[in-house]
Amino acid sequence: MSAPNKSYDPVEVEALKPEEIARMRDEALAAIAAAGDLQELHEVKVAQTGGTSPLALANREIGALPPQAKAEAGKRVGQARGQVSQALKARQEELEAERDARVLVEEAVDVTLPHDRVRAGARHPLTTLSERIEDVFVAMGYEVAEGPEVESEWLNFDALNIAPDHPARTMQDTFFVENAAAGEDQSGVVLRTHTSPVQIRTMLDREPPLYVICPGRVYRTDELDATHTPVFNQVELLAIDEGLTMADLRGTLDHMVKALFGDDIKTRLRPNYFPFTEPSAELDMVCYVCRGASVGDPQRPCRTCSSEGWIELGGCGMVNPRVLTACGVDPEKYSGFAFGFGIERMLMFRHNVEDMRDMVEGDVRFTRPFGMEI
Ligand code: FA5
After folding, report:
1. Non-local CB neighbours of 276 within 8 Å, separated by 6+ positions
2. Is 165's pLDDT higher than 90?
């Protein structure tokens, strides 16, 4: 800073001369106008308005002036700095607008371009069908229950009133993981052959009333062919409450079939035998493709029901009182019904899948046409 300028002569302070201030201002304005982008403008701002910029240094010189000269010099420098900061602001806005316009053009997406992305995968139709069935029952107030696939022989057979000499227990049907220890009262371990042990687990764990639906994978020593697979999926339902009858079972299954196949589909129960239900039945539904019209009419054969008019859905019945007793449920107070069926078989006739092997091979060309039902 110069020495105090006692005898007033503003011209003596070189940096405060009007033409010098005008030169600094014009230089700053020219640099601002020349800034080509926001980064350059930032650099110009630091150079022209920062603490060591020419105008800031000139401003400091004002302190060296005698009092009567300070106002005039201060006004001159202040005006110049004001013009510079206005020009900076205007150029900033201009450059921002230019950048926004450029980004809009550069980042525009042409939605009409053909895409070459990898196709999204698809959910397996067994999963979507199983979830659809669950939804029907959840809407009726049922809960979804699950159980382990490696199961004790007692839960898979004994508790379900399947005696040790029942054919289902032989090596032909069951994958044994661990045999029962000879002479000891200890259950063996199997891969569950049906979802029915989840019924037992539910009854052992909780007090009635119970309304559960149990979907899950099951295992049998069947050969893989067009209508069998050693690993398949079942859905089982169980209701235990006071006063439940066969009429409740009938109404529930009728509702399920109508919800899945249409309101005009009739059902029927055919007598059958299962050790864990008494009485037991097989649930059939009218063929939803030919509505029975193919029966006895060779001109109109139906592939879905093999021209029989009815499709077999699965086994059902009133829970055997022996099963209730084994699970600690009082058969004098409570009754219940159960129903179980295979999802693969349902998928076959619902979608005309001719070979069950297509369902297990994992080829997305099979899965894709079913779409992405969520
Ligand atoms: C049972 O498994 C009983 N637990 C069902 C039940 C539950 C009856 C509650 C009464 C009360 P079943 O062995 O019939 O029943 O098998 C049920 C369904 O599994 C069959 O209708 C069939 O659709 C399917 N299934 C059986 N074996 C195979 C297999 N190897 N591959 C594909 N699906 C199969």
Report:
1. 160, 161, 162, 196, 199, 317, 319, 320, 323, 338
2. no
